[in-house]
Protein: DONS protein
Organism: Oriolus oriolus
Amino acid sequence: PGPSPGFKKPPALLRLKRKRPGRRSDPAATAEAAAAPAPRGPSAAARRRNPFSSLDNAPQRAAAAPQPPAAAPAGGDPSAAPFWQFLEPACEEKPPRRAEPAESSNILALSKDLHSPLAVPKVPSSPRQEFPADWSIKTRILFMSSQPFTWAEHLKAQEEAQGFTQHCRATETTLPQSVQEPRLCTELRCAFQQSLVYWLHPSLPWLPLFPRIGADRKMAGKACPWAQDEALQQVLMSDWSVSFTSLYNLLRARLCPYFYVCSAQFSVLFRAAGLAGSDVPTAAIAPTTRGLREAMRSEGIEFSLPLLEESRSRKQKNSEESLETESTEGHGAGSSVEDAGEPAPSDDDDDGSFSWLEEMGVQDKVKKPDAISIQLRKEKHEVQVDHRPESLVLVRGSNTFTLLNFLISCRSLVAVAGPQAGLPPTLLSPVAFRGGTMQTLKARSISGRARVQGGFEDVFSLEVLGPILPHALHALTLVLGPAQRGAFRALLSPHEPSAAFNTRAAPPQEAVHQDLPACGLHPKTLDQLRQCPTLGKSSIRLLEMKDYAYTWKA
């Protein structure tokens, strides 16, 4: 038999059908067609497109009406950051609608991404000499200032080595309030290099080891020789357990202030006694699931759900206030008051007692729920918070050691399938530990021009990438304050699952008596991390220094 006739497999018609939805989705064409009156007479029939025609002989559609110019690509509140929304290269004076060079496009992309609707900050705080501790891990920070950041470029080999030495020896660097020539100040450049150092385990340069939550797409296609080799997985986990135990021993000895354990399912923040307003060591886990919490309970680990308990107490208080208000107004709406005051069924009604069925004489005709159903009904409110910030678990005191052993033997800590199968969790620490590898954050400076009222002004930016730990953010501000003459702005992009770590870790009345003089942090950074967290489950999105005073938005 010869080839199939053309009417059975018309490729041109298939291509036409594939392109047809794109045409119909044009908003300008749709609006124009709706506004224009329907043509009548034979001319309209002549202009009607033949549905069986090919792309070659199909009538061409008239050009659409010109579109208005695109809006500003800032993506955020224009009043929050008016001077960096339109950045142009410093060496050219071009109209704002012309094509931008690659370097300026990078700045625009950064500003647009960091000013997305999800990251719109709230009302700024009042100016203070210090900003609150932010225990979330930042993935990127964009510092912007009217003063150049050229002093942070091309460090000499001696300055880089001196910065590493100062970090390893925990040397405290004291800088003047203002540095007149930052590019010629060796102490400033060494302190900048010192603030970029962190420690990591395991060290696999070809894999992105942070963030681990939702990183399957980035790790797909990477070489993972341990995925099908159980012996290699056991070696990796044994080495990881040694490093994990080393970090915990340093933390109990108050030689390590804190460290993170980042797995594909959840992250854990261990803090030494004396930090975050707690007099005992603490460990925060987020996000969690009911299965993980049940496994921790079965191991005898005592923990609390501070955000969930706070939400329950707030709802109960609001319910009591509403009941008091309604009772004072009268007794006419008694039934509605009862409905409003009880948003969820009480757990006392599901205690497994069915004596009321026997009183009615129908105990044999009604199917009774089993014990598992009753238990699930009691815990339905707890299950609803799984994978949410409200599922944060807080472990205090000696229970952190039990948690250490639990995590080492926890099967859900390591993925069994997917790109992260067999890969141990990532350990992040501000100080050295056994098996840890020294890493540095990536920093680069960019110059541009910002469009303001009446013309343009020079704007300089410094982009920092990587897992930016809480101490690194504060250390960078201590360096940038003198270098930028007390004026800069910072756009922060946090790792969202870690924002819940800003929950209060101790009762308000708890007194802190622990001291951490040899933990490797700057004294001012240590003083900041000792304060009780005040950000709740949010994190700082915008940090601004003006006249050496901080304001921030969360």
In short: Confidence is low (pLDDT under 50) at residues 55-59, 62-121, 332-352.
